[in-house]
């Protein structure tokens, strides 16, 4: 028991110490702003591609998938404006504007890569072209995944009726589309976390070694977003302080919290790996 406490203390000290001394707070700020700047180009690119491929309901489902896991106080104002932007008809799929949207969306992936390289204490050795192509590939994969989920949600009522006709026991569970949206959104987040931790940073990591940091990230995101939402409900003066900019300021602060937790997840994985390697050398 004492040995486990000592090990936990060393791991946490290593993770928090490296986060603090290696500009973790500044990287969280960079990641938050870059993510916000990449989010809208990504949704515009994905929605345009979805409309081109015939997935007309993509805008609504994509907004749900992105914002359903955000606290309502943060998500509602932004989701409303995003939906207004995404429902504007576009026929410029292959024009420079939409291609630039894909490029700017990939900047968010690059910010994730830089943050994780620092967290895992590795030096990037891959070429800039390889990294940018990989980032754009991530954007395309995310778009394809959102499109597939969009189509699935559109056909969900029909699939539910077919299931009810053949399986009586499933009826109590088929009417909770909102619940399924939460489940799907959570699955997308978990899969995305594993993908970015495994492929984006330089070097190689075992898949199982990513689990502690991802569990920490998910738990801390839930706690942090709940606490921030409670703060907004009871103590916040953002609206009186920032007036019309309140929604943007709230989103930036929320993404800053999320980004810091995300980087700490990588720091935790790196600290655990360093501890286990040190133990193996001593043993």
Describe the protein in words:
This is Putative membrane protein. By secondary structure, this protein is mainly α. It has one domain. It is 81% helix and 0% strand. The protein is built from twelve helices and no strands. It has helices at 2-21, 24-52, 58-67, 72-86, 96-119, 128-154, 156-166, 171-174, 177-199, 211-234, 238-242, 246-282. The longest helix is centred in the C-terminal third of the chain and has 37 residues, at 246-282. The chain starts with a helix and ends with a helix.
Classify the oligomer: single chain
Beta-strand segment tally: 0
H/I helix tally? 12
Let me know the average pLDDT: 80
CA-based shape: globular
Largest sheet: none
Strand content range: under 5%
The secondary-structure element order is HHHHHHHHHHHH
Structural class: mainly alpha
Short description, anyone?
The protein is 81% helix and 0% strand. With 283 residues, it is mostly helical. It is globular, with a radius of gyration of 21 Å.
What does the secondary structure layout of this molecule look like, with pairings?
Blueprint: H1 2-21, H2 24-52, H3 58-67, H4 72-86, H5 96-119, H6 128-154, H7 156-166, H8 171-174, H9 177-199, H10 211-234, H11 238-242, H12 246-282
Helix pairs in contact: 1-12, 2-3, 2-5, 2-6, 2-12, 3-4, 3-6, 4-12, 5-6, 5-12, 10-12
